[in-house]
Amino acid sequence: MKRYVIGVDLGTSGCKVLLADELTNCVAASRQTYAEGSMVQLHPGWVDQDPDAWVAAMKRGIIDVAKNAIGGKVEAISFSGQMHGLIALDADGKTIRPCITCADGRTEEQCQEIYEMLGGREEGRKKLLACTNNYMFPSFTATKILWLKKYEPESFKRMSAALNPKDYLRYVLTGIIGTDVSDACGYGLFDCRNNCWSQEILDAIGIPADILPPVSESDTVVGTILPECAKELGLPADVKIVAGGGDAVTQTTGCGAVRPGVFTVTLGTGSLIGASFTNYVDNTLGTPQMFRSNSAGRYMAFGGTGSGGGALAWLQDRFFRAEKETADLCGKNVFAMMSEEAESVPAGSEGLMFYPMLVGQRCPYEDADTCGAFLGMRMHHDKRHFVRSLMEGIALCLLDNYDVIRPMCGDLKEVSITGGGAGSDLWCQIHADVLGVKVIRYASYSHGGAMGACMIAGCGVGIWNDLPHAASLFQIDKLFTPDEKMHREYLEMLKIYKQFYPALEGINHSIMELQ
User: Which residues contact 229 (CB under 8 A, 6 or more apart)?
Assistant: First the structure.
């Protein structure tokens, strides 16, 4: 009898559900969008979302894929999900308010308050690195808890559990509150070295430990599906629920970057480079993020930028609207058309360079006010140059970030690429040429988080021995080999790229002050 697992990937705009077999083949996939009005922005920069819309989308997706488990049974479900969000539950397990999501920008004040409560910005940074191995960022869950405490004190008083998004889905299916080590690190309160909540930080900033969920390894079976849920979803009554992980980590797992020297490049809305490793390493710089991995006893570090596929979408919306209309009429993908046109531009974009900081920067510089820029513009440049330059700029940004995470992750030997942007052969080849190593695109590249959740589920119930065993079964879609001449040229471009931030820092801050 065939053995199947289901992976649920909870995003900000939709929920992807994947059914995989014991050979890691994608048997069925379903993407469900959320009900209209489920995302609310009461003020600029605020992003609240209704968790029940996630639940409804997840259930539709599971029902959609589960019927394809032919000749076998679904044995386990696990999760990948948007990190850092805050779902506040009361003592009865009911949501108190909508989720404050990872995309929310209201908590800069609380981030700075945390530093002050820890002795000031520099002293606070030192204490955080000593206790959690990460700086505090406005996106982290801790800042949202403190925002609730200050601005919605009645809600804070009622809160008995502070959950991340994917863990609310777990709770709905099992009735059990908990999180995993990777998502726990995204609270900004988790002692990454000792694998527990940092009581020192909690005491200093006034967050009670009893509202934080119990923490398990990602592949821990945390319960069995509730009978009423199994019946509603058409699943066997003994389906096991496995902890899962935060999406930034689980996408790395889902694209097979689970062995030393194998890095992942994720080209989603943002772009990330990261890798897992065995021995704990102090995050001395603080700007990269170091989390626990989906494999027990392992860690992962990553850096990147909020600009990735989102930057390409910005370029398309501003300058390729006519092409979008043509693509829609012809049933084509406008991004594929843009990529094809950019292939006619030589490497280096004939002197045009892109600095991809459209939404600020976190690594290797922590600066929310830095801005993006095209530099080197001349009269001969056209739209094709801007597309290729954008792709090259993001790849150079990831190479710059690799230099920062290398002391933790080790040497780069190969890259597994994932995310929507990985559908562009040109962009994959650019990354191979920029990074100077082979880039592998697996057949499941567009299902990164959901496939990672499937792998975690399968390891939890013994279908695979471990994550490397599951990844060894992946089928390769395409292999991209670096051009050594191009790599040398891109290394020269990197020297120029590294000058952009110090040269533009003061100018960008002056521009932001004018606004």
Answer: 172, 173, 235
Element (H, E) at 41: none
Instruction: Provide the percentage of residues in the chain whose pLDDT is more than 90.
Output: 85
**Side-chain-facing half-sphere of 234: CA atoms under 13 Å:** 11
Domains and CATH numbers, the chain: 1-83+166-174+216-255+444-482 (3.30.420.40), 85-163+179-212 (3.30.420.40), 305-442+483-514 (3.30.420.40)
| Residue closest to 315 by CA, chosen among 376, 386, 229, 249 | 386
Distance CA 474, CA 136 (A): 36
Flag whether pLDDT at 45 surpasses 90. no
CB count in 10 Å sphere of residue 143: 28
The helix, strand and coil proportions of the chain, stated in percent and rounded to the nearest 5, come to 45, 20, 35
Helices (H), 294-344: 309-319, 321-330, 334-342
0.85 surpassed by pTM: yes
| Beta carbons of 361 and 398 less than 8 angstroms apart | no
Q: Is the pLDDT of residue 515 over 80?
A: no
| Per-residue model confidence as pLDDT tens digits over 264-320 | 999 988 899 999 999 999 999 888 999 999 999 999 999 998 888 889 999 999 999
Question: Quick one: which H or E segment has residue 65?
Answer: helix 51-66
